[in-house]
Structure formats: C-alpha cells, structure tokens
Write a structure and sequence with these properties.
By secondary structure, this protein is an alpha+beta fold. Helices cover about 55% and strands about 15% of the residues. It contains 19 helices and 14 strands. The strands form four sheets. A five-stranded antiparallel beta sheet has the order 2-1-5-4-3. The radius of gyration is 54 Å and the shape is elongated. About 30% of the residues are buried.
C-alpha cells in the first residue's frame, strides 16, 4: 500500500471514548493494586477508595454504553472529568496531598487538553484544580501553607501545559487534515491520470483506425483529382486521382514548389480574370491564381469548368469544385480543388444533342409532309369529306401540329445546348409582344376557366432584341401559367420599367412549385412534382427555352413560387443595348 493510500485511510475523527479511557483505566488499576499492598501506601481511608472505585466504574459504563457520536463530541469530556473525580477520591483515600497516586491525573488531563476547542484548556485546568483542592477541603486542619500554595499554583502550570498540548494537538490535527487532503488529491490525480492514459490509448487506437480508413478512402479516390494548396497556390496535397489524371506521381509534385496554375490553360485563366465581376474581387493586383480562388476568398462556393493540361500536352476537360482549407481555429490556410474528368460526359452530351438535332430534323420533314397532305385532303373540292371525316382530320392535324411544335422545341434546345441558335437583334417594342401573347392565350384561358389579366403602361417600352424570340419566351410563360392554374384562378401578365430594366412578369394563382425544386426548373426535361401529381401535360422544355432566350438578350429570369399559392416568373431585360450575344451565350449567332 502506498503512503498516499495509507494516509487516506487514517480517520480524522478522534478514537472512541472507551478507547481514550483505556490508558486511564490501566493506570488506575495499577494504582489501586499498589494501594492494596501493605506498606506501599501509608494511609488508607476505605470509604474514599470505595467511592473512587464506584466513580471509575461509572466512568467505564459511561464510556461504554452512551452513544457519544449521536450526542456530540463536545460532551465526551464528561468521561475524563468523571475519571479525574475518581482519581481525586483515591488520592484523598491514600494520603491526600502526600499521596503518590495523583500522578495518573495526567492521563485524563492530557485527554481533555487534546480535544478540539480552546475551552478544553479551562476544563482541564479546572478539573485539576478541583482534584488538588479536594484533600485540603477534607482535612483543613492538617493543611500546611505549602499545600495551599501547591493547590493554587499547580493548576496555573497545568493550564499552561494544557494550552501548549491543545495547540500542538490543533496543529497536528490540521497537518493531518492537510496531509490527508493532499493524499486524497494525489490519489484522485493518479486515478485521473490512469483514466486519461486509458483514454489516450483508446483514442490513439481509434485515431490509427481512422487514419487507416482515411488512407484507404484516399487511395480509393482515383476517378477524382484532389489537389491541395497553400494560400499562394503551392501544391502540398496530391491524391492518386490527381496522379492518374495528370500523369505525375506524388513524389514528383510535392516538395518541388509546383503551383496548381501550372496545370491550367493560360487562356482560360486570362479570360476568367477579364470576366470576373468587381463585386467578388477580394485582392488587388490579381494574378492567375486569383482566377481560381477569388470567389472562394469572397466566401462563395465555386464550381466551374476548366481544362487541365498534362505534362505531355494532353488537355483534359474537368469540372473543378474549389473550397477553402481551414485549421482547427477556423482560419483559412489554403485551398482544395476537386476535379472530375468531364471528357466522357461532354462527349455524351455532344452525341445526345447531335442525336436530338438529327431526330428533330428527320421528324420535321415527314411531319411537314403529313400536314401538307392533310391540308390537301381538307381542301379537296372534287372529293369533299363528310363532317365525321373532317372531325377525324382535325384531330390528326392538331396532334401533328403538336408533334411539330415538340420537334421544334427539341431542335431549339439542341441549338441552345450547343450554343448556336439564331437571334435577330433590332428595336423591339414590348407592349406589342405582350399584347400578341394575350391575344393568342385568350381562347385557351376562356376554355380553361381562368381569368387572364393584362397590365401594361401607356408609354412604349423598347429594348434591343429579337421580337419573335421574346414573344416565344412570353408565350411559354403564359402557357405554363394557364396549365398550372385551375379553373377559377387568375393569370396576370404585366409590363413595367424598373430603372434600366424592362420587366415582363407572369403571375398566377395556381398549384405552385416546391421551394426545393425552383433551382431545377430551367433544366431540360425537368418537371415539378406538383405538375406530375396533378397530371399537367408537358415535357419540361418551356422554361429551358425561355431562359436561353432571356440570357441571349443579356437579361435574367427570376422565379418565385409557393406551393398551393401560386407562381411569379419575371423576365428582366436591359433597356440599353445588350452585350453581344456571343458573350451572353457562347457560340450563339447574332444577326444585326
């Protein structure tokens, strides 16, 4: 057992009253035995000796039978006082002031003096005084002046001794308490250290397991390139995917102070620097690396298409997600670039667009032929058709026209995806565009039971754009609003000026669109869940075409919707001359 543990097991409470009485009992029994031996004690008064024995038995019974812990420790001095009284009676019975039995008074005296509390000094001194004055009071006649002096002077000395003993006991008690507290603290610290060590061992094992797992995952990421850099663009992280994509091993890149911009097309970096919006520029004196991370420095996520250049000169089209690297305090210490090879995806998209365009062209020719022959059948005066036949012919014509419009939309979206669709820029007056859309949509609204409201200003609103394409965009918005608005609802088409923008807004009171789906509305063939649930017809191309037209005119499309309340889509066009279409939509063909 260690010293700390041994000290912690020492009880701070005083021993039991009976245990404290044992030394006094032993001394008393010895003195009683000596007093019974003839010739050892000169004088005997049996009455006092018998009384002394009775009182000592009483002290013994008090110490043994009374539950002192429940009564209180301050009352335990009663037992040594009774023992003092017993010794005093024996002293009177064995010669009084000349009796040698009085020496055992020191035992209960020390007991009282060592108890906690300064008042025990007075109690011990008072007890001694009563015992010493007792023989004088019993036999005053034979008392000498020396006995009187001794009776009154000795308690003073005893009081001084009691004060010293009490102080020593107090200090010993405090030292023992401090020692025990320190031992307990050390034991607690030792236990805490053991627990901490166990936790460290466990955490170390977990960390090793996590590191092995992360390393396994890291080595398994071979289809994505993960490149980490410091704040200046120097590469310090290079995963197996980067080695596979760029043809350099980790040992060839790390430690060579190579920068990530070495693997980018210079022309793309320079173009990005020219096109960067001043609102997102966070540094002055921008370098090529700023083209990659300027948006991230401003606190925005950045996912962009780039072209990686391998050391052998081969170019790899990639989509790069740039994110910051943070330390444990949340401070940016670098950047992470996760790149996905888009070669196959772009080739697939190109083939898909070519297929759609080819199919559209191939379908348009027979459809045009079908419509032509249907018209000939309708207008054949030599062999007129019956009413029932004309009805069937009308159904065929409507479906053929519907299919032709779908083919046209598919062809147009293919042109949009390829970045090449014709647009004729000239002066366009939007009131006429909105009026034409209202005129063509009125019969459909009446059939659907939907109120169609037009709100246009009195003064003309002119922009630079293609009237036909803008009309197509507005028609798409109105058509969608009518399809998504149940009978009894309202569709409002408004035109207004806001600063340097012309705003064409279509607002309906229809079924609305979930908020989580708003960002996907302009994707090709995407249909909102509300449209699917309510069986609203359509293929999901209208907003794709509309957004392409608006973007080609240098404008933007704002969409706001609440499910069950309605939808508002605003077409915003710059009133001043828009940017060249080739900038708005790469590859678009502008005809002045």
């Amino acid at each position: 057992m260690t010293l700390d543990r041994w000290l912690s097991r020492i009880p701070l409470e005083s021993p039991s009253v009976f245990v404290k009485l044992v030394p006094t009992l032993v001394g008393y029994i010895i003195a009683l035995g000596l007093s019974l031996i003839p010739g050892v004690v000169s004088a005997h008064i049996p009455l006092y000796i018998a009384a002394s024995v009775a009182v000592m038995i009483g002290a013994f019974l008090l110490a043994l039978l009374v539950p002192w812990p429940r009564i209180g420790v301050h009352w335990t001095v009663v037992v040594p006082l009774v023992a003092m009284l017993s010794i005093g009676l024996m002293r009177i019975g064995t010669g009084g002031t000349t009796s040698s039995i009085g020496v055992i008074l020191l035992l209960p005296f020390i007991w009282i003096a060592t108890e906690d509390g300064r008042r025990n000094i007075l109690i011990a001194a008072g007890g001694i005084f009563l015992v010493l004055i007792g023989p004088i009071l019993v036999d005053v006649a034979s008392t000498s002046p020396a006995d009187l002096i001794r009776a009154f002077f000795s308690p003073v000395i005893y009081a001084i001794v009691a004060a010293v003993v009490n102080e020593i006991a107090q200090r010993s008690r405090r030292q023992l308490e401090a020692t025990r507290a320190a031992a307990q603290q050390r034991e607690d610290m030792l236990e805490q250290a053991v627990r901490t060590q166990d936790e460290l061992v466990l955490n170390e094992a977990r960390l090793k397991t996590a590191n092995r797992l992360i390393q396994s995952i890291w080595n398994a990421v071979t289809e994505q390139s993960v490149i980490g850099t410091d704040l200046d663009g120097v590469i310090d992280v290079w995963n197996p995917g980067a080695a596979k994509m760029l043809g350099l091993t980790e040992a060839q890149v790390l430690g060579a102070d190579r920068k990530v911009i070495e693997f980018h097309l210079v022309s793309e970096l320079e173009e990005r620097l020219r096109d960067m919006d001043a609102r997102f520029t966070t540094v002055s004196g921008m370098d090529d690396f700023s083209a990659l991370v300027d948006t991230v420095r401003a606190g925005y996520a950045d996912v962009r298409d780039w072209t990686y250049v391998r050391p052998d000169g081969k170019q790899v089209p990639v989509q790069v997600a740039a994110t910051p690297r943070l330390d444990e305090n949340g401070h940016r210490v670098g950047f992470i670039f996760v790149a996905t090879d888009m070669t196959q995806a772009r080739e697939f998209a190109r083939l898909k667009d070519e297929f759609v365009g080819l199919i559209s062209h191939e379908l348009r020719t027979p459809l045009s032929s079908i419509l032509g022959y249907l018209e000939l059948m309708r207008d054949d005066d030599e062999s007129p058709l019956s009413d029932e036949q004309l009805q069937y012919l009308g159904v065929a014509e409507r479906n053929a026209h519907r299919l032709l419009r779908l083919v046209g939309d598919l062809l147009f979206t293919a042109q949009v995806e390829s970045g090449r669709f014709p647009i004729d820029i000239k002066d366009a007056e939007l009131r006429s565009v909105v009026g034409a859309s209202i005129e063509s949509a009125t019969p459909v609204a009446a059939t659907a039971g939907v109120a169609l409201v037009c709100d246009v200003p009195d003064e003309p609103v002119e922009v630079r754009g293609d009237t036909v394409r803008l009309g197509q965009a507005v028609d798409n918005l109105v058509s969608n609003a009518l399809k998504f608005t149940p009978s009894g609802g309202t569709v409002t088409l408004s035109l207004r000026r806001e600063g340097n923008e012309a705003v064409v807004a279509v607002t309906d009171t229809g079924i609305g669109i979930p908020a989580v789906e708003l960002s996907q509305l302009s994707q090709r063939f995407f249909r909102a869940s509300t449209a699917t649930r309510n069986a609203v017809p359509g293929v999901g191309l209208g907003l794709t075409i509309t957004k392409a037209i608006v973007t080609a005119h240098g404008g933007r499309l704002d969409i706001a919707s609440e499910e069950g309340i309605g939808t508002s889509i605003s077409l915003r066009l710059p009133i001043e001359t828009p940017r060249p279409v080739a900038e708005a939509v790469p590859g678009a063909e502008a005809r002045p």
